Amino acid sequence: MSSPTADLSQLRIDRDAPGGRPWLAWLIVGVVVAAAVAAYPTARSYVAERRAPEVDIVRATQIVGVAGGGSGAMPVLVASGYVVARHSSDVGVKVGGRIQTLKFEEGTRVRAGEVIAEIEHADIDAQLEAARRTVAEADAQLAQAAAAREEDVRNVDRQRALMKDGITTTATLTAAESAAAVSAARVKSAEAAIASARARVKVAEEALENTNVRAPFDGVVIKKRAERGETVSPFGVAGQASREGGAIATIADLQELEVQTEVSENGVAKLTPAMPAEVKLQAYQDQVFQGRLRQIFPSADRAKSIVEVRVSILNPDVHVKPEMTASVTFQEIRTDAPVRGGAAAPSAPTVLIPKRAVLEQNGATYVWVVAGGTASRRAVMLGPERIDQVEVRSGVIAGEALIVNAPAGLTNGSPIKTKG
């Protein structure tokens, strides 16, 4: 076996040998660098897209006047309340007693003056009969007194004729005249008795009429508050709510329905007489009823800082029922602008955006507009507020997408992702 030292001594570096292929390594490095440069924008975009914040967007909307000289309506205030009948009455009794007859149920239509209930009245019937018989008796007594008076008057005439002939005495004539005066007084007493008896008849008839409960106006019974056989009183009875006070039914005119609502003191200034409105019922959200502001109450509630308002429903149908929950959107009419020659030109289009999309910095207002997946800041000039929206005079056009509740750190050109 040869020694290791001998083997190592034979190793030499041949510096004159021809070189290898160093360009291949440089070529590989170049290809790698070129690929990296080409992939950099795509990778950067991918990373930026992955880091882009998700935002909510809304569209700017536009309202224009109706063609042909019409008008457009702008919402200015929303309030909620309850449907009530403009004419409604808790109908009660005039006298206490037991209900003998009920002629209605919930939903019964009644006419003004129609008897809808009766109180037991046998005692009043008896009183009325007695009063009528008293009148008949007084009539008979008057007839007797009148006949006696006529006889006494004729006797006086006879005594005066005999007195002229000297046949009778002065005392006899005086007695006849006294008897005639007494008969005349009796006639007057009988006439007074008849008047008194007839008055008692009228009192009894009125008492009998008071046992009838009549409808005060044309309407519908919306609530039945008593049953046949119950004892009722004009002042209520034990177990009956004090405010009902003997009421046996609630009648409402369902042809005139309105919404009873409340508006804060800050919002009352936005309302005008006969202002148009849209009414929606909570039970029928897809159906819109036309309304008109009928009344703003003359006083406010100091504890709640509100003012009560009534809005008439112009086109109610069978779906609209008293005590339903309703919302009212008050609207401002945007009329067309007159032009030369008496014609009307369409009003300028109005662009509305949510107030949540508007930001403010150093006294300037701006919004973030989304286009091509990026956000751009844009200054805007605002007009009046419309509930949760605001008019835009310049800076945004209808249909543009705006960021609402924009996240902090946005800059012009920042990539964003939209939710949903």
* Overall pLDDT confidence: 82
Counting H and I runs of at least 4 residues, what is the number of helices? Answer: 5
Give the number of domains: 4
Overall strand count: 27
CATH class of the largest domain: Mainly Beta
Q: Can you say what the CATH homologous superfamily of the largest domain is?
A: Efflux pump adaptor protein, beta barrel domain
Main beta sheet: strand number and arrangement? 7 strands, mixed
Low-confidence stretches: 65-71, 339-344
The percentage helix is 25-40%
Q: What's the overall geometry?
A: rod-shaped
What do we call the CATH topology of the largest domain? Elongation Factor Tu (Ef-tu), domain 3
Amount of beta strand: 35-45%
Distance between the termini: 83 Å
Radius of gyration (Å): 50 Å
CATH architecture of the largest domain: Beta Barrel
